[in-house]
């Protein structure tokens, strides 16, 4: 039960983060099209997660076998793969949150 609640909290955070990014982009980049604002706002959190995963992969791959210990490197790689999957999945709730925020705070004259 706690795992489902944690997953729901992560998805809710992704929606709210994308909505906040969408509102910020609407305010600071008013010349951007609707599609560009929504896509950019939805991809902020997944790109940050992917950047952290890439840094983790790079750090682990540069470690020697003595530094890894028994299975520490394998667990780090697995955690990075799980977070990469989560980042890809969080694109959809991000798109939903950004779209809802654009509907509320965006301009109505944009045909796209």
Could you give a short description of this structure?
By secondary structure, the protein is mostly helical. It is built from 6 helices and no strands.
Give the SSE layout.
Elements: H1 2-28, H2 34-42, H3 44-61, H4 65-68, H5 72-89, H6 91-105
Helix pairs in contact: 1-2, 1-6, 2-6, 3-5
Structure, described:
Helix content is 81%, strand content 0%. It has six helices and no strands. α2 (34-42) packs across α6 (91-105) and α3 (44-61) packs antiparallel against α5 (72-89). It has 112 residues and is mostly helical.
Record keyword descriptors for this entry.
mainly alpha; single chain; 6 helices; 112 residues
Uncertain stretches: none
- How would the global form be characterised? elongated
Distance linking N and C termini:
41 Å
What's the number of structural domains?
1
Mean model confidence by pLDDT: 89
Specify the biggest β-sheet: none
Q: What gyration radius follows from the Cα positions, in whole Å?
A: 18 Å
Structural class of the secondary structure composition?
A: mainly alpha
Number of helices: 6
Beta-strand portion reads under 5%
Number of strands: 0
Helicity range of the residues? over 70%
Q: What series of H and E elements makes up the topology?
A: HHHHHH
């Amino acid at each position: 039960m706690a795992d489902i609640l944690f997953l729901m909290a992560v998805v809710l955070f992704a929606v709210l983060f994308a909505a906040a990014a969408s509102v910020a982009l609407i305010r600071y980049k008013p010349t951007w099209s609707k599609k560009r604002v929504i896509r950019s706002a939805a991809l902020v959190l997944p790109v940050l997660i992917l950047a952290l995963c890439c840094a983790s992969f790079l750090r682990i791959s540069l470690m020697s076998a003595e530094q890894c210990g028994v299975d520490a490197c394998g667990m780090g790689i697995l955690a990075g793969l799980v977070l990469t999957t989560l980042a890809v999945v969080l694109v959809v709730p991000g798109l939903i949150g950004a779209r809802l925020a654009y509907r509320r705070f965006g301009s109505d004259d944009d045909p796209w």
